[in-house]
Amino acid sequence: MRLLLLAGLLLALVSAAPAARRDFLTAAEADQVRLVQEPNERLKLYVTFARQRIDLLKQLFMEEKPGRSSLIHQTLEDYTGIIDAVDMVCDDALRRRIEIADGMSAVLKAEKEMLEALQSFEESEPKDLERYEFVLARAIETTEDSIELASEDLQERSAEVLERERKEKARIEAMMSKEEVKEKRATEKKEAQQKRKAPTLRRPGEK
After folding, report:
1. Distance of CA 135 to the CA centre of its chain
2. pTM surpassing 0.90?
3. Buried b vs exposed e over 13-28: b needs ≥16 C-beta within 10 Å?
């Protein structure tokens, strides 16, 4: 099953048409993410996708083949996009005051292991390193930053997220007229009231 998943990822990379901006997830993965709304489960899902990218990279680094460097470059970019998404899911959950200790525990464990793998790729000094050296360094840096965030006390990180949001809101309102600010706050208040009153059959944490 694992080999089939990796083969599918490799096929998606090879068959993808060149584009200015690629999605870091396959269509099937994006569908899975949309179905998993609960933050802890979504974090674990992203971890699964990230691990698959690392497994694919391990295979690619095992043997030098024509076109390998391009596949490594794309896979590293996809991996980095997934790690960025992990951090966004975490911040969004903390902003909504949702408990994510379980998900973050899975994230921290996986990221430490994946960082070791990325560093081993760099330390092996492959002949084609210069073709993907920048994206590899970025993947390592992004993982290190994410580990640092995942290691923080969640209450402290939640406070930091809310403070950043408050400052950004104040910055935006500072560029608006008094009438625009008044209208904006009235709209936000109305939306908040509607959200509280709206009946739903969804589980807690679902959008």
Report:
1. 16
2. no
3. beeeeeeeeeebbbee
